[in-house]
From TrEMBL:
GO cellular component, one term: cytoplasmic side of plasma membrane
CDD domains: Syd
Organism from which the protein derives: Thalassomonas viridans
Name of the protein this chain belongs to: Protein Syd
Family: Belongs to the Syd family.
Topology in the lipid bilayer: Peripheral membrane protein
This protein's UniProt keywords: Cell inner membrane, Cell membrane, Membrane
Pfam families: Syd
Record-linked InterPro entries: Syd (IPR009948), Syd_sf (IPR038228)
Main location: membrane
Keyword field contains Cell membrane: yes
Main function: Interacts with the SecY protein in vivo. May bind preferentially to an uncomplexed state of SecY, thus functioning either as a chelating agent for excess SecY in the cell or as a regulatory factor that negatively controls the translocase function.
Keyword Cell inner membrane applies: yes
Cellular compartment(s): Cell inner membrane
Length: 195
């Protein structure tokens, strides 16, 4: 069954809500990242001031995923590659800005990838182009990655033709199907919040 854009967006926001709630239960505040003044994001929610400071520390920020402004699209990639990307992958990467979100699925731990800001979205697009060109060169079916795993060369990707979610080793054909659709896959995830 193919997912609709709204169904996938709803599942993503449900996961985000669950992630933020779980993170706050474990840590008592929003997620934290290092402050990079050259890499701002609408995700930033203010400076993080830990109760105890142990020596000099990098300045940190509190953050949470925020709705993307609607300017994110893949028209340039599709034109350059002469390829229409599956609607689910376009929707996945344009619903919100976020740092990676850690999750657990039946196969183990993974990190869902998103764009932190518009510059990061451009970098993401370049990486997708590189991935698709590699697939073409190797004469493999076209997939688009959206998550990394705790195993260095294993990624999760979406089959561009069917919309199914697969595990694949970088440079190889997908080898294990995890779900028939992105919405189904996202719905089966639980947040992974280390203490």
């Amino acid at each position: 069954m193919k997912s609709t854009n709204q169904d996938l967006a709803d599942k993503l926001w449900h996961f985000v809500d669950s992630y933020i709630e779980s993170y706050q239960k474990v840590h008592g505040h929003l997620p934290v990242a290092e402050l990079d003044e050259d890499w701002p994001s609408s995700c930033q929610q203010g400076l993080f001031t830990p109760q105890e400071k142990h020596g000099e520390q990098e300045q940190q920020i509190l953050w949470q995923p925020v709705k993307a402004d609607g300017n994110l699209c893949f028209n340039n990639i599709e034109s350059a590659l002469e390829l229409e990307l599956h609607p689910d992958i376009k929707n996945y990467f344009t619903v919100f800005h976020s740092d990676p979100l850690d999750a657990l699925c039946q196969e183990g731990q993974l990190s869902l990838l998103f764009a932190w800001n518009e510059n990061d979205f451009e970098r993401l697009q370049e990486n997708i182009i590189g991935h698709v060109l590699m697939k073409r060169k190797l004469k493999q079916r076209i997939t688009v990655f959206f998550a990394i795993t705790d195993e260095e060369d294993l990624i999760l990707s979406l089959d561009n033709e069917t919309g199914a979610v697969w595990v694949e080793r970088v440079g190889c054909e997908p080898h294990k199907k995890l779900a028939d659709s992105m919405a189904e896959f996202i719905a089966g995830l639980t947040p992974h919040i280390p203490a």
